[in-house]
Amino acid sequence: MQIKPFTDTPIKYLEYDGRPSADVKELGLSTDDYLRMYRELVFARAVDDRCYILVRQGRSGFFAQIAGQEASQIGSALPLRAQDWMYGDHRSQGSLMIKGLKASEWFAHQLGRMLDPSQGRLMPHGPGRRDLNMPPPSSTVGNQITEAVGTAMAQHIKKSDGITICYFGDGATSEGDFHVGMNFAAVYNSPVILFCQNNQYAISVKLEEQTHTKTIAEKAKAYGMEGFLVDGNDLLAVYAVTKHCADKARAGRGPSLIESYTYRYGPHSSADDDTRYRPKGELEMWRTQRDPIMRFRNFLASQKLWDEKKEEALLVDVKAEVAKALAEAEASPVPEMMTVLDHTYAAYTPQLEWERKELAAELGV
Amino acid sequence: MQIKPFTDTPIKYLEYDGRPSADVKELGLSTDDYLRMYRELVFARAVDDRCYILVRQGRSGFFAQIAGQEASQIGSALPLRAQDWMYGDHRSQGSLMIKGLKASEWFAHQLGRMLDPSQGRLMPHGPGRRDLNMPPPSSTVGNQITEAVGTAMAQHIKKSDGITICYFGDGATSEGDFHVGMNFAAVYNSPVILFCQNNQYAISVKLEEQTHTKTIAEKAKAYGMEGFLVDGNDLLAVYAVTKHCADKARAGRGPSLIESYTYRYGPHSSADDDTRYRPKGELEMWRTQRDPIMRFRNFLASQKLWDEKKEEALLVDVKAEVAKALAEAEASPVPEMMTVLDHTYAAYTPQLEWERKELAAELGV
Amino acid sequence: MATVEVEKKTTLSTMVQAVRSAMIDEMTLDPNVVTLGEDIGPRGGVFLVTEGLIDKFGKDRVIDTPLAELGIIGAAVGMAMFGLRPVAEIQFIDFLFPGFDMLVSEAAKMRYRSAGQFYCPMVVRSPYGGGVRGGGYHSQSPEAYFVATPGLKVVAPSNPYDAKGLLISSIRDDDPVVFMEPKKIYRFQKQEIPNGAYEVPLGKAAIAREGKHVSLITFGAMVQLALDAAEKLKPQGVDVEVLDLRTLQPYDCDAIMTTVAKTGHVVLLQEAPRIGGFMGEIAAYIAETGIEYLEGPIVRVGGWDTPFPYALEKAYMPNVERVTRAIKKTLNF
Amino acid sequence: MATVEVEKKTTLSTMVQAVRSAMIDEMTLDPNVVTLGEDIGPRGGVFLVTEGLIDKFGKDRVIDTPLAELGIIGAAVGMAMFGLRPVAEIQFIDFLFPGFDMLVSEAAKMRYRSAGQFYCPMVVRSPYGGGVRGGGYHSQSPEAYFVATPGLKVVAPSNPYDAKGLLISSIRDDDPVVFMEPKKIYRFQKQEIPNGAYEVPLGKAAIAREGKHVSLITFGAMVQLALDAAEKLKPQGVDVEVLDLRTLQPYDCDAIMTTVAKTGHVVLLQEAPRIGGFMGEIAAYIAETGIEYLEGPIVRVGGWDTPFPYALEKAYMPNVERVTRAIKKTLNF
Ligand SMILES: Cc1ncc(C[n+]2csc(CCOP(=O)(O)OP(=O)(O)O)c2C)c(N)n1
Ligand SMILES: Cc1ncc(C[n+]2csc(CCOP(=O)(O)OP(=O)(O)O)c2C)c(N)n1
Ligand SMILES: [Mg+2]
Ligand SMILES: [Mg+2]
What we know:
The complex is a heterotetramer, with 2 copies of chain A and 2 copies of chain C.
Chain A: H1 31-56, H2 70-77, E1 85-87, H3 93-99, H4 103-111, H5 143-157, E2 164-169, H6 176-187, E3 192-198, E4 201-202, E5 205-206, H7 207-210, E6 226-231, H8 235-250, E7 256-261, H9 282-289, H10 292-302, H11 308-331, H12 350-363
Helix pairs in contact in A: 1-2, 1-10, 1-11, 2-3, 2-8, 4-11, 5-6
Chain C: E1 10-13, H1 15-29, E2 33-37, H2 53-57, E3 62-64, H3 69-82, E4 85-89, H4 100-107, H5 110-113, E5 123-128, H6 143-147, E6 153-155, H7 160-172, E7 177-182, E8 191-194, E9 206-209, E10 214-218, H8 222-233, E11 240-244, E12 247-249, H9 253-263, E13 266-273, H10 278-289, E14 298-303, H11 313-316, H12 320-331
Parallel strand pairs in C: 2-3, 2-4, 4-5, 5-7, 6-7, 10-11, 10-13, 13-14
Antiparallel strand pairs in C: 1-8, 6-12, 9-11
Bound molecules: thiamine diphosphate (2 copies) and magnesium ion (2 copies).
């Protein structure tokens, strides 16, 4: 698989209508792989839709949709292995679930239940799981970047065969964290992939107000790093580029910056009103002409791997799985009030012991 | 004057031996200008030498030499006008003095006397002067960068005809401040010159350990900004490039990054021991073959503007001026103990009033 | 100076509206006032405090910034030194920390280190505090950091009227002010507030409720909780005085001493964790200066000494029960 | 685990040497201990704490970093989560602030927000404090910020023996520790300290001097000043007990209460500005829990509430005169 270095035309494997525009065979993916990939896209969208409803019902306090970015998230997570580390951001549940987070856990996270691996301790933008090498995403935009680089430095020091991927948005590239993380990654030649999902907005701020370059990917050069610009709505292209960078990192050939050019359909989060800043027609264009799921379905169809009947069966199946996952989450208890003091330190300090007594008295337990 | 955009060969007007390698006439400098420039170089070196002695005598607690960087500092400060703002760093006294700081004030700063415009309130790495539009240099590496950009934004907002120059070192480019400042400058097309003195070391850390690019100047592209690499030991080249960028900023054509490639002769500061990290022979090479003062003197000689006699007269003259400035500084009183509480806020708070009484009691005044 | 056109005398306003009104009045009166922050332009800020401002004052004075708090605060410092009066919005105060260095190393110390030549007449305004299901990074009350930084002033209003008047005073003040807006009560209450600019002085506390048995000292969103607790205790014959500090740095020594001398019992209420919290300062001040008045322990009520939780916010935040227990602890000493 | 070879039993050491010895012993014993910071490689750190370490342990474990505290602390967090025990050196604690966000938003909260799954066994060690003609940015004592951050531990030794033992305990601790090294006394005193690793437990104060009239509570470089003040007052018949807190978060409640109960008089001594300072916490704790023992006001002594000066350092820093005046203030109440 040959990935050419940065140009300002996004790397594509599929045309917008799904027809292959590059040699997809070189990816070495089987029919089963394709079918799994498609299922993951559809599943991620279904989870997203369901969460949106939870928020509207007032049952979840916060939600950042990934709709529109499924190919970007899934395509970049698939090349990773168990020993690899993944740092998500506030909009990466698609990737987290590929790494192993269960949908039921994600729903529990939305609902603040004990099945949530973070046990309801985080605003629901993504929990971590230690056994998956997946720290809880940072709320403070950009904080995960230097951490991911530190983990990659540790992987090098400990001669681990794992690598690290780190997700962040276009807006995050303006923070000092991006700069410092990029520089450390390059200076230490660390096995890390810095994966920027450029969905063109940071809340209301468009990329051209965020920075004065046309792309994010070209910024890599300022660090002596390789940068790649990929069409983030093209699952195969995202997969190919990420796989390339993962192999490179594993081979000790250092870090890469990937810009995945995509678009979010929802408002920034459940607290946002995107009609205030989105130009008319833009969303409609992306939804109808650039949708990553439709594009991959068309690809499958072009390869005679998909038809209406298969689609219907899949939707039924996915719907059932989503319902089951949500039910599991709902069956999970809310955290006990007394646990609010747990996990501040490895052990209770004298001060926290004192507070534990006060809290018990207050709660009458 | 035509300045070509970034290449990784530093822009030069003079060969190392002082012969012009470009058309110096296009700079429009008169013989008087040349002679003043030379005097400033020699004067700066003399002040530097004198401060070094003050430190060795234990009379000054801290000093960061500029020796070796005189052309870089003076050449970049000369194109500025009174209404322009200058943000120095911990090693910019050469520039501050061109902007108008008196040598006597600088010595008073070293000694912590009242003639110091900062009245002994700063470790002596550079005082500010409000009437010169010159804030006190930041101690925290990089902090001045976003401030300078903010000032330039204000200049734009208030339609001032001033511009801003901001000095920092190669090491400072690793801080988030550099990144954020560069990005803001480019996004707002602010009238600012970001002037990096690359003296190849940040204390002991060589540039190749600091960042993975060969130059600093090339980083400008990552912000959609113009970058220039100039031979920082070539006074005319530094002058020409800075003048170009100043004119550009004044014309509303936005910010520039200038990398001035130079070398420091002294240890990082009076607290440093540079033998621990400097490769043998390096310093000697720079001192004997790249010295900015020698180079400019040779240029003058090549133009038949200088000879031994003039040199001797100048040295006598400069020595006297330096001695006079130091004497003035020494004649200045040390700050009164009771003033330690002044200038925390615009007015004394009740808490500080209380402390004023306590301090008076403690001092028995 | 332009004048603000006044049609009616007052407007019924939430705190968000009051803050917005302060911004509009000051920006109208003083062309040197500008505001900058993330999403404050067409989006109007995530809480709509700056809604419509960009249309009124233009892009030069209402500056949508890249996502970098270091740049927001740093640029504000550079603007303020130049002579503007920037009002920097930090979207949530939890996100101030990428720019913390600029605030504590630069804004706070510029006047001192330049011997009064340069100073930073700037405001950093930001929503703070819990009670909105915001979890660990949209709920914090980090006033302790700011109060521990000489050179900064720290202000936190508890109602719309004060919010407007205190913000105007903060903008006009020649020192850097951290203006903490209790987001929990952004839309909790409406008050008639004067149209046109007015000042509520910095450094002056207000008695939110007179009482004689115990002094409950607090600020911001906790004032309402204090009043609720006071009402709760009234039937039990406990008469609580509630002091709303309004300015935390410099705090109002006289008002504190007056109420302590009056009641002899002190409860200090904040949302933040207790350890190392701001109320430690007030306790220390009283224990040094007013110990002769004390008839019981000084009791602090705060959040627990943990990061701010999400699902268990209720178990975390101070509540009427916790406050009344504290009051009884000092009264029954 | 490798073992440390012990030739003599003790070595006469300054605090710098003690800290260096702790680093060498722990890095020898535990291959997961690494250290990173500016100029810590061939330069050996600006105070020579890491002198020679890069030759002993190689570039992978003694990591000279680019000039970016955000990266130093951020990378340390990522290393610690992975399973290393990074010791990050911040050249002067005044320069921690570009990385403050990573410390308070991430290191401190990682365990809590992941419900105990991820945590950060890391140490941020840094020289702090005044008395070295360092001016406003090489002299600060910002412990108040760290203590106000649940999830962090804060340690400050006052002598070489404690420095080594406390640093080893901090490295072995599973929580993030800010280890503040009083640079004023880096080379002030030599003590015989054990060769080979030993622990001084976190969270335990030490009585630096027994006394019965007044409890002078302090830490770090101020312990020496406290002892000097105690000697000064001895001829006047005032017997001062000096408590060296050693760990500021979690502080030693029992030790504090024991000395307060014993003497009934409290003076709290720190270098930092008083307002919002760490000692406010101790005052509040005593005023809540031990008020019945108090026979006079709790008096705080600190730096003034200004930024740290340069030329007037002497007028700024606590001195024997200031401490003795405070002691008399509470004794003569
Ligand atoms: C340091 C910080 N500043 C501000 C915020 C508020 N905030 C949350 S997400 C966001 C925009 C992020 O944009 P981008 O990085 O493009 O990611 P996207 O949301 O588009 O996926 C902002 C401003 C924050 N969480 N952290
Ligand atoms: C934020 C911060 N970190 C560390 C320091 C300590 N320090 C002072 S100068 C310096 C090196 C600066 O190198 P560079 O930017 O190249 O400037 P130079 O000294 O070479 O002129 C360091 C590490 C500091 N002052 N501020
Ligand atoms: Mg985005
Ligand atoms: Mg340098």
